[in-house]
Design goal:
The protein is 28% helix and 33% strand. The protein contains 5 helices and 7 strands; from the N terminus they run αβαβββααβββα. The protein has helices at residues 3-6, 25-34, 61-68, 74-80, 105-108, and strands spanning 16-22, 40-44, 48-54, 56-60, 81-85, 87-90, 94-98. A hairpin with a 3-residue loop joins strand 2 and strand 3. Helix 2 (25-34) crosses helix 3.
């Protein structure tokens, strides 16, 4: 295999988005809340937990608060999240990740006008 064939670029959208969480008590509970949701995959590693979703992933603060036992909010989420991919939108009661900017357009002031 030549070096130019070893690595290839694929510029098509994967339609995926997600986060990497710390693998600690709070990260584990958040991952458990997300596990089993339609289109969401949770994979645990020794020091991190991946939460990946197809098209959109919603982290609902009320749902997580109930599972974790205290009022879980955006700052708590940011404390356990080390990375993310996709367009992240913070709302009052949840954080939403979108795989495609067009889907988040109304939240992120994304211009959907056709350019000639």
């Amino acid at each position: 295999m030549t070096a130019s064939r070893q690595f290839e670029v694929n510029r098509t959208s994967s339609n995926m988005c997600g986060v990497t969480l710390m693998n600690n008590q709070n990260g584990y509970v958040v991952a458990e809340v997300m596990r089993g949701k339609e289109g969401v995959e949770v994979v645990e590693y020794p020091s991190m937990i991946r939460v990946d979703g197809k098209n959109k992933v919603i982290f609902n603060w009320d749902e997580i608060s109930e599972a974790i036992g205290f009022d879980f909010t955006q700052p708590d989420f940011e404390e356990i999240m080390s990375t993310h991919y996709g367009r992240m939108v913070h709302l009052d009661d949840e954080t939403v990740l979108f795989a495609n900017p067009e889907d988040a357009a109304e939240y992120i002031d994304f211009d959907l006008k056709v350019v000639d």
